[in-house]
Amino acid sequence: MSFSTRNKKKANVPSSFEDQLALLQDSEANTERIHQIWARPSVPNINPDHDSIIFQQIEIDDSADPVSKEPIIRMFGITEIGNSVLCYVTGFRPYFYIPAPVGFKENDIPSLQNQIARAIQMDNGLKKPIERIELTLKESIWGYHGNIKSQFLKIIFNEAKALNATRHILYNVVLPFPY
């Protein structure tokens, strides 16, 4: 077999590059089909007075109304039929619990609230950072306590910025309160 005969036989066989190109073209066609399969359905007509929207929450974050500074929780999700959802939760107040100091009483709340508010206002200039403080009985989630309830302070804030500032103050700065 001569050199020219071998080259003619090879010319009929696709090269590796041609094989790769054919695979790429096939995958592009498959991608187009996949996009057609995964396209979002049309949004159904919803009457907010009668219809509920049920969705799976995928992501959540918090923000604030740019004008009123009211806290807003944004929940991102998807419905069962594939519609994207962005749900704004308003009217929520950020809060956290801390163990109450031994001997803490209801009448100690105004003093604690004023001390925290003064410390926050010095650092951040927030007007009324704390909405209220409640003395409650709760079970600690740290370790085993035999289902015994202890006193906790529920500190409820007017905005998330105040929550973060208070957490920083309580854990990193010594307040003149008997803890």
From TrEMBL:
Gene3D superfamilies in the cross-refs: DNA Polymerase, chain B, domain 1 (3.30.342.10)
GO cellular component, one term: delta DNA polymerase complex
Catalytic activity: DNA(n) + a 2'-deoxyribonucleoside 5'-triphosphate = DNA(n+1) + diphosphate
One Pfam family hit: POL3_N
GO BP field: base-excision repair, gap-filling; DNA replication proofreading; nucleotide-excision repair, DNA gap filling
Domain DNA polymerase delta/zeta catalytic subunit N-terminal as annotated: residue spans: 91-160
GO MF terms, alphabetically ordered: 3'-5'-DNA exonuclease activity; DNA-directed DNA polymerase activity
InterPro entries according to UniProt: DNA_pol_type-B, DPOD/Z_N, RNaseH-like_sf
Protein name according to UniProt: DNA polymerase delta/zeta catalytic subunit N-terminal domain-containing protein
